[in-house]
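pinging the channel bc i need a second pair of eyes. not urgent but kinda urgent?? the chain im working w is below, pasted from the shared doc
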Amino acid sequence: MSIKIEVDIQRSATIDTHAHEAFSRIATVEEMASHFPKLERLEQVDDLTYSWVLEKIGTDAYKHQVKYTCKWKWHDADRKVTWEPIKGAGNSQISGVCHVKESGEKSEVHFATKATLVIPLPRWTKAIAKPIVKKQFETLIDTYINNVVASMA
C-alpha cells in the first residue's frame, strides 16, 4: 500500500546579480543541484535528463528516499528553466519552473514546483503524514532557494 501526497510550492527571491548572470548559473543543472539540501546524488540519464536521489528523510519510525527523473528545458529568450517528470522513473513526479526577471542590477527569481510523492504507507496514515511530508518538502525547497540566493550574493 502507498499514499500519494501532492505539494505545490511557489516562491520568489531577489538576487544581487544581473539577470543574465543569474540565468546562466540557474540554467546549469549540476551547479544548482549542488545547493539542494539532502541530495545524495545527481545522475545524468540522457541529454538534459537527470535523476535526483535524495537522502532518506522522515521520522525515527519511518524514513523514505525520494527518487525522480526530469527532463530540463532552457528558454533563453524568457530566462526560464523548466523541468518535467519522466513517467515511471523513480517514486515521485516533480515538475517546475524557475523564471529570472531583470530588476535593475539585481534579479527577481520566481520558482514554482509541483511534486507528487508516492510514499509506502497505509492509507489510514495519510491525514497524519500529509502535513508532515508537506512541511519537510517545503523546508527542503526553502533551504535550497536560500542556498541559491547566498551563492550569488
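so The CA atoms of residues 15 and 149 lie 6 Å apart. and The radius of gyration is 16 Å. — does that match what u expected or am i reading it wrong
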